[in-house]
Every structure is written in structure tokens, then in C-alpha cells.
Batch of 3 targets.
Target 1
Amino acid sequence: MNLFLHIPKSAGSTLRYIIKEKYPHSFGVVNWHWTNWKDEIYLKNNYDFNKLSQNKIIYGHFNYGLHEHINEEVKYFTILRDPFKRVQSGYFHILRDSHSAFYREIKNMSFEEYLKSKLILDVDNGQVRRISGVGNEVPFGEITEIHYEKAIQNIEKHFLFVGLTENFNASLFLLSKLMNWKSPYYWTQNKGKNKKAELINPVDQQLVKDINQWDYKLYDYCRNKLDSQLSETDFDEQRFQFRNKLYNISLFPTKVLKKIKSKL
């Protein structure tokens, strides 16, 4: 069994769509809103892991460690994103969604105020938190090299693959080979429109870097690993984009029809 650890705001919605297409009758979901963190008691009380174990794949905003509830051999895979872009995307996501947790507290905050508020734990090295498995056990500002090293250890021992949002096509190309998928092409999902991105300045960028130093190190580690894997393939970005465009054209009539039906 494979576990897709969906790190929030990292192109995971597109990959979830792909998973549903590949495993229409054999996927499970373990998920909660990315602004909240859940503990072991919550998992045990809210999910039937005997039933979930019957699937070929499980996805969601969980942490490393979910496999301890599953009576199967598992491998994780995930997609990382540039830490600044990911934190920025989370901020705009909350501003767009009046139903999201902490919307009332954050809606009038500047990005700098959002970062300093410490309201959203995911802002603080959220990628290391999930992959190391510490989740919300470590307070804001207290992620260390120990947690970073644990994340690396987990990746090397228990992850089938780690891709990058900024190199999504290449990541999907490699993942498709590892998962024996016939086609790596996709219909893009949930692409946010951050219309206020130009308001964020270098001071904000440095603040994100100061808060997320271990996420930056993890991202660099996985980027080098991905580059090494790609060097051993015949991946061509332009060819992939062309074929993916053809795939989207072929799907367009079906997508339009579904959208019309949903409004009837």
C-alpha cells in the first residue's frame, strides 16, 4: 500500500485528482483541515483502519506515522514546495475562504502580522513537521536540526518518492514510473489566484526564511535528490507539456459537460 502525504499548499489537489483517476475504487482518505493538527486519539476515534487497509492507496493531510495504524507494508510519497511560496499560498487561502479556521482573526492582518501571530502552526516548518512525524507535538519556533534529520531519515527509509511543486511535471513523470501508471498526464486542480502577491516584500521573504530554516534545508535536500533521479531519465519538459496539453484538450468536452450538469 502507498500513502500520499499531502503537504498543504503544494499542488496536492492535482495529485489527489490523479489518484482518484488511477484508483477509482481503491483509495482511502485520512484528512483534516490543514490549519488544524490532530493527535493519535483523534485518528483512532474517527477512522476505521481495518477498512482503510483494504485500499491500494490512502491520501490526506496527515503526518508520517499513519502506517502504524495499518496492517500492511506501506511506502509514503509526497510533494514539497518552496517554503516561501507555500506559506504565502496558505495566507491567501485563508483570506479567500471565509469558512476557514482563523479567518476572523487573520482577515485584517498583513502578511507580516500573519507570520508573527503564530496562530497557524503550519507556518513554522510545516513540511519538516509532517515528514518527521512530530506534527503539533513541538511548539511554534522549536523545530530543530533533530527534527530535520528525522525527516531525512524517514525519506530515505520509508518514502517511495519526494517530488517538488516547482518541478511538478518531472516529479509526476518519475512517480508514474515508480507506480507503474500508464500515463502521467493530468488536469490541473485547485490553482489559487494570489492577486495580492505583489504586496509581499523582501522583508517578508526573509521573515519566512528565518521561521522556516529547516523547511528550506529539507527542500534543498530533496531538490538535489530529484535532480539526480532526473539525470538518469529521458524526461523532456517541452514534450511533456505538449502531450499534457493534448490530454487536456481531449478531456475538455467531458469537463464542460460535468460542470453544466452540476449546475442543473
Target 2
Amino acid sequence: MKYLAAYLLLVEGGNEKPSAADIKSVVESVGVEAEESRIAELLASLEGKGSLAEIIAAGSKKFATVPAGGAAVAGGASSASGAAAAEAAEEAEEEAKEESDDEMGFGLFD
């Protein structure tokens, strides 16, 4: 990630095609030892893919197809599970009332 972050910083700074030396310089400027093999791997993976904006746009399209999961799980829940969840919520609310600041003799914002 640190090499990608350095690449992104360089691009945002106006260097449209950062070299391995540029990335190494940024990484080492914060006191971290740079691995040239990892930098070469990053540059190889980005080679021929267009501008950074195009790469991000393509990634966003792929990311949009990933299911979020929450709706399918909630839709498949049984009514018994829903009742148990409601009971747990009520118990948590009652416990929160019992542990109020007033019982300790002072309030948090007094």
C-alpha cells in the first residue's frame, strides 16, 4: 500500500508517470526502506492501463458489482429471530437506563 500511496501522491503532485526512483524517493523521505522489487511490481501492474483516472473508473465499476450482503441476510431472517432481536434491544435499553450518571452522584457534563 505504501508504494501505491507514494504513486498516488506523485500523480496528484503533477507527475503523471512516476518512475521507480520517484516512488523510492517518496517512500524513503518518511524513513521507510523501499523494496525495489515491490515498486517494480506496482509499475508493471499499472503499465499500459491508461491514466490514473481511467484505472480508478474501471475499479469503481468492478466494485459496484460486489454485493453488500445486508439486504439478503435481513430478508431471510425468521420472525423468531426478529422477536429475539427486539427483546435484546429492549434489555440493552433498560440496562442503559440503570447505568445512568445520576446514580453515581454526578453527571458527565456537570
Target 3
Amino acid sequence: MSILNFKRSKPKSIADTGTTAAFLQGYSIEVMPRTAEKIEDFRAILPAATRVYIAHIDGTPIEDMVATAKRIADEGFPVMPHFPARSIADRATLADWIARYRGEAGVDQALLLAGGISEPRGEFSDSMQLMQTGLFGDFARLHVAGHPEGNRDIDLDGTQSNVSKALSWKQGFSDTTDAEMAIATQFCFEAAPVIEWAEALRTSGITLPVHIGVAGPAKLQTLIKFAIACGVGPSLKVLQKRAMDVTKLLMPYEPTDFVAELAAYKAAHPEFLVESAHIFPLGGINATADWTATHGTAPARLRASKG
């Protein structure tokens, strides 16, 4: 099946594929300290062993980050905090953050990325510099950022030249570390460009698995706001087209078709680098948990409560 043929035969709904539940097994979810506070017990809404990323928004005190990591880890979930290079002043600060996460929350996983601010606060400007410190040497898992639709902060000309070079460097780094590595991406709304991007990575020699960003259920206006703020690329047109249909304007967006298309492609192409979904709960953690539960990845107690 070619990508072109696949695009013409995209499923109409999540039920058409029979593969979406399998694709969602092992999904991860991203929270912030202030959103995590709203959840009484993550065990009631997430499947056991769900990886929980903790986003480090610039200005968030490290104490809040570590406390959130400890709370979620104590509930039995593997925790993966963000380490935004441009927000970290120096090597000593990085070492302190790592020591706190390791000592207080038992963290041994990290997402390394440049971060959302344009200018570095200190000596780090990208995730590669963080890796080169050697301070993550005893971590079990390291994830790095991927950009299926490019990143104009990195490639001003709109190409993928610099991000491609960075991924090639990280691929090489993966051969020098005992840590499991993967690529975690920004959320997207259209499957075909993701498929094309991931296949191009594989052709170029990248073998790191991809955890594709998925926007959880949310109001359309909320998604458009976040998509613009986060620099989502051409797939933003999927939301803009939906916004022009007054019959859909007030209906919540769900990533059902997007995930179903990726799941179907994965089932037909086992070598496809995209191995799982990383979900951004932009419409709320509970709404995202309900959506994933409906499609086959509910924790036992939630499935029971739903009958």
C-alpha cells in the first residue's frame, strides 16, 4: 500500500480500523503542575504504567516540578519531566535539577528539548548540549523532540535542514548511551504529512521510534489557540476548515480519525517508526482519559464504572 493509496482510503471512524486500541496501548500523556493538581488520583483515570510527561513551562519553580513528579510517581506511574535547555542557567543548575528529581521522585526518564523561549538564559541553547554534559548517564530513557511539520524557530527558511541534522546527531548519540531513546513530537492534526515525514526519517537512516503528538479532545477555539501558540504547521488547516462549518463549530474536536489513520498505516507497515501516541490533554486531563477509555485503553476500575 502506497502512501497515496492510503490517503484515498482513510477510515471514516475509529471503529473502521480495528487497530486503534492496539495503537493506543502504551500511550503517554503530558501534564503541568497546575493541571495535575486538579486530578485527585491518576490511578482512577489512567491505565497502569502510563508514562506521564511533566511540561516545564518557563518560570515554573523547580520545587513545583519535583513535587508534581513525586506525587505522580508515588501513585505508580513512570514520570518523564521536561528539561528545557534554554531555561537552564548552567551545568550546576542542571545537576541540581537532576539530583532533586532522582533523589526525591526516583526519576530516571527525561525529555530533552531546547524549550519555548527564543533566547537562552544561560550556557545551553539546545538539547544536544544537555546530552553532552554526561549528567544523564544513568537515566534509563531519554526522549528528544521531533517536528513533523518543521520548526521555524530552528529552520527560518521553512525547510527541515537543521532539524534533520539535529536528529541525525541524536541518532548517533543513541549508539553511545545505554538509555532507551525515542522522538516525541509536537501535536499534529493530519496523518498523511506525519506518515510522509516518518518514512523520510527511516529512509535517511533514523531508527529512533516516534511517539507522535496527539491533541486530546477540546473545543475548537481552544485547539486553534494552542496550535498557533505552539507553532503547529500546515495541519492547522484541518482545524481552520472545520471552523468554517457552522454545524461543527460548537462540537468538541476529537483526534479519532487522525489516530485511526496512523493506526491503520502502522498495521499495514510494521516497520513504520511511529510506535505510539503522546497525548496533549488540551481540553482537560479527564476529557482525554475518557476518550482513551472509550477507545480501549481504560484502567480496570474506569471500565467497570462505565459498565
